[in-house]
Structure of DUF805 domain-containing protein:
Amino acid sequence: MTMPPPPPLPSNQASTNPGGPVPLWAPYYNAPIGVAVRRFFTKYATFSGRASRAEFWWWYLVSVVISIVLNIIYSAAGGNRMNADGSMQSMSGGAIVVSIVILIVGLALLIPSLALAVRRLHDTDHSGWWIFIGLIPLVGAIILLVFYLTGPKPAGARFDQPTS
């Protein structure tokens, strides 16, 4: 049984590195999940360049799964327990430790998540400063979601900084 050929690369990838791996400065369209997560951590605080939809949404899925797992562990460790009268019970030692781990993970992933969001905005030919529109309740989040879902625009290449 033969596998179908992979889909053709967008013109910017085909011309920069034909047949080889996609360079870090270029967006990786149709990136598999493992590559998207690896690129997320490799480009930890890189706000320049672009990120494809696949890179952005695969990381978003991974971060949601990490969040769900940490919240399950937190609940199992004794967090968010209520007494019979509806008052909150004090947290157990395990829940405090898990809370600290959640805080550390959240802080460690804050900058790279912002950097990825800015690179995704660049791929849609928007300045990274548009990320601040998310501070407007509801409307800002909807506008950012539309930008994140928008396909790549060739004019977004102005944000690229080729290194080789």
User: Anything to note?
Assistant: Residues 5-9, 11-16 have pLDDT under 50 and may be disordered.
